[in-house]
Write a structure and sequence with these properties.
By secondary structure, the protein is mainly alpha-helical. Strands 2-3-4-1-5 form a five-stranded parallel beta sheet, sandwiched between helices. It has a two-stranded antiparallel ribbon with strand order 6-7. The protein has a two-stranded antiparallel sheet with strand order 8-9. The longest helix has 25 residues, at about 440-460. It starts with a helix and ends with a helix.
Length: about 775
């Protein structure tokens, strides 16, 4: 294009290049975009208009966009006032006039509520809605259901999305509040009347029946591009008559209920905010400078709000209305759990009120389940626990729990039939429990649940006991529903550990000391499978207190030995372990119990060795072995095996690897012979332990090649019986042997796996694994 041609096609406006002469909105928009040097994608992003909509405008398929869209395009293109006005005139000429056949169209009757300028997050959900609009077939009107628990901001999201998508729907955007939480929600007939009037149907032309009104709405909007927000829906029956049929409309439905019966709809299940999103929302409400000055307090505040948008907004609005109040002050107030819901209210916004709306709509049984479930321990619970607390059949409770999920008051587990509360909902449920049930009912529910839980836990744990595994089914409170085998017993004990641990404390508080002792005693052999659980210290402390409450020195010796083991192996506190072992030794000698005397000497020795008193440790182990040598019971032989394995380990670590190897070979031989009354699985584990020690003895003697096989045998066994606390140290020792054999790649892989697993188990040998990894990498280089 030459200079003269350029001059003919432009005039000067404030020093900028003039608008090229063009006919119609589409050509004019193309010319302005080209002049700005912008691609369709870039302009789409800058203006908030989809690429597809922009292409339709430029090609003349959409000739008269709304004024809001034109203003967004003008701003994105950087147009001056006169050029923007010319673009608006071109758009106005292409806009369709109201259809006189249907009467005057009044778009302001059901106008969208105002958008908020501090909206944050929800980017993926907005993107899914945009994709839904762009990807819809020409003759379909997609429907999106936005659901979730109270306080997630479903209405705010729907309104914000409608404003963002407005340019796609030039025939208008309408919002109807269906009052789904009111005692009498809006009827479909009344909602249809409002919608028909809003799209221009004369009052006299609106049919009387719901069915006819629904048909007329579908007919009127068939050729229009409308966006409908149906907010706060009560049920599928309320929504179905309001949905457009064929056409190019979009309907966004919000509801606290899942509306699972609605067919062929797109679903958006809003989640809690992430921490950074919640802090960003707080920043937009109170100002980034204020949040920046108290970053730690702001993060604590949104966590106490449970990352629930409504709660964060209330906290933010409260702070915004008190510009000189520190965030840390409000955080300290929210930290008081009993006052948290009182604090989370400002003006007419209340978290408690949001939950109460859903609670009031529940049937009586579901309300009872919600209230009583607030007594459940830990972060989650199953229908069994809820049924015990509510004193209702499990089948009924399972149904009520699903109703609570649908109402957004419980959150379901993704893989198991288990449920959890949002923290604030749990506080609300606890309030209702205190108000409606009272302290006496709560205590009775806890006692009933605790005794049942402890009987089930005891029966499940007995499956791992060397002497009493046959008694498991007889002791269960519900044999028909009891775990069928060890795998199921282990799964139940692991899933319900928060419940049975709480039950143990409740039973002790209520004076059921014998039940506490029985449960703690039954847990002994099961605890070996989960040595990384620090809760074993709690379990056996309860057992010790119960034994003392009953005045039983024999039970006290047993429970103190268990406690010594837990201190030493679960929390790695050798000083506390030695104190418990010494107390157990005194009680066992007082009662003449040789088995418990042998265990106490062994646990004390282990603690002494960890504090560096190796000679004393070895002396105690020799005494323990002598004490247990004449024991013929399965428990006695197993105690002897434990003592021999520990004695050999201490000897090896103090330089006596040859004697250690002989002792561990003896342990291996005892395991390979029949130990009457001991479960085969347990003897297999002891055999693996002996072979682990043999491998380490051979390694200490520098016989690296011979050490590999017993270590591999031990590791395979521990993995087969899912004993991670035993398998991973064995894996570490195998990696060390492989490094010494010069097999660096294999050693590195083995040591890396061991290091990561030991860190997960909080095992102190993780540091040793890290050091070995550094060595093998250096040697490989």
């Amino acid at each position: 294009m030459g200079p003269n041609q350029a001059e003919q096609g432009e005039h000067h406006m404030g020093g900028e290049a003039a608008v090229p002469v063009a006919e119609g909105f589409g050509p004019l928009l193309v010319a302005l975009r080209m002049r700005a040097g912008m691609s369709q994608e870039r302009l789409s992003h800058a203006a908030g208009v989809s690429v597809r909509a922009l292409a339709d405008l430029e090609r003349g398929r959409s000739r008269g966009p709304q004024r809001r869209t034109v203003q967004a395009l003008a701003a994105a293109l950087g147009l001056d006032e006169d050029t923007a006005a010319e673009l608006e005139r071109a758009a106005r000429l292409g806009r369709p006039r109201p259809r006189s056949a249907a009467g005057p169209r009044t778009h302001n009757v059901l106008a969208l509520p105002r958008d908020i300028n501090d909206f944050v997050a929800r980017g993926p959900a907005l993107a899914r809605l945009l994709t839904l609009v762009d990807g819809a077939a020409p003759a379909t009107s997609p429907v999106s259901v936005v659901s979730g628990q109270p306080g997630l901001g479903k209405t705010t999201f729907a309104v914000h999305a409608a404003h963002r998508l407005a340019s796609h729907f030039p025939d208008g955007q309408l919002a109807v509040d269906l009052h789904g939480m009111d005692p009498e929600p809006t009827t479909p007939r009344d909602a249809l009347g409002s919608l028909l009037r809003a799209v221009g149907v004369n009052e006299r032309a609106i049919p009387a029946s719901t069915e006819d009104r629904s048909g007329l709405l579908r007919s009127v909007v068939r050729d229009r591009r409308l966006l409908l927000v149906l907010d706060n829906a009560a049920s599928e029956d309320q929504v179905r008559p309001l949905l457009p049929g064929a056409g190019r409309c979009l309907t966004v439905v919000t509801s606290r209920h899942a509306l699972a019966g609605l067919e062929a709809v797109h679903r958006i299940d809003l989640a809690l905010l992430r921490q950074e999103e919640a802090v960003e929302l707080l920043s937009r409400i109170v100002g980034p400078e204020r949040v920046g000055q108290e970053g730690r307090a702001a993060r604590d505040l949104v966590e106490l709000c449970g990352f629930l948008p409504l709660a964060v907004r209330i906290a933010g609005q409260r702070l915004a209305s008190r510009p000189h109040e520190r965030i840390s002050k409000l955080t300290a107030q929210l930290a008081r759990e009993e006052k948290r819901l009182d604090t989370l209210q400002v003006g007419d916004l209340q978290v408690r009120a949001a939950f109460a709306l859903s609670y009031r709509q529940l049937p009586p049984g579901a309300r009872t389940v919600l209230r009583r479930a607030s007594l459940a321990a830990g972060g989650e619970f199953g229908p069994e626990t809820a049924a015990l607390l509510a004193d209702l059949p499990v089948g009924s409770v399972a149904q009520y729990a699903e109703e609570l999920v649908d109402a957004g008051l419980l959150q379901p587990d993704a893989t198991a039939e288990r449920y959890r509360f949002h923290d604030l909902v749990k506080l609300f449920a606890a309030e209702q429990l205190a108000a409606e049930d009272g302290a006496a009912v709560s205590r009775a529910a806890l006692d009933r649940t605790a005794l049942w839980m402890l009987r089930r836990a005891t029966a499940a744990a007995l499956r791992f006991d060397a002497d009493r595994h046959q008694d498991a089914l007889d002791d269960d409170p519900d044999p028909a529903g009891a775990p069928a085998d060890r795998d199921e017993a282990r799964a139940w004990l692991e899933a319900e550990r928060a419940q049975w641990l709480a039950a143990l404390h409740q039973a002790q508080t209520s004076g059921h000391h014998r039940q506490v002792i029985d449960t703690a005693g039954a847990m002994h052999w099961f605890s070996d499978l989960n040595q990384h659980w620090e809760l074993w210290v709690e379990v056996f402390r309860c057992g010790v207190r119960a034994a003392r409450a009953l005045g039983s020195r024999q039970d006290e010796a047993v429970q103190l030995n268990f406690l010594a083991w837990a201190y030493g192996n679960c929390v790695h506190d050798p000083h506390a372990s030695l104190a418990a072992a010494d107390a157990a030794l005194a009680a066992a000698r007082e009662t003449g119990d040789r088995l418990q005397t042998g265990w106490a000497l062994g646990y004390g020795a282990s603690a002494l060795r960890r504090t560096g008193r190796v000679e004393e440790a070895i002396a105690r182990l020799r005494e323990s072995a002598a004490c247990l040598a004449d024991e013929t019971s399965a428990q006695g032989r197993l105690a002897e095996l434990s003592t021999l394995n520990m004695l050999g380990t201490h000897l090896r670590q103090s330089g006596g690897a040859e004697e250690a190897l002989n002792i561990h070979r003896l342990s291996e031989a005892i395991c390979q012979a029949e130990v009457t009354g001991a479960p085969a699985e347990l003897i297999t584990a002891y055999l693996a332990a002996a072979r682990h020690h043999i491998g380490n003895d051979l390694a200490a003697l520098g016989r690296w090649a011979e050490a590999e096989l017993p270590l591999r045998q031990a590791l395979a066994t521990f993995e087969a019986v899912d004993m991670a606390a035993w398998a991973e140290p064995t894996r570490l020792d195998l990696g060390i042997v492989l490094r010494r054999l010069g097999r660096h790649d294999e050693a590195r892989r083995t040591l890396l796996a061991a290091h990561d697993a030991l860190r997960e188990l909080n095992n102190p040998r993780q540091a040793e694994a890290a050091a070995e990894l550094r060595e093998v990498r250096t040697e490989a280089r």
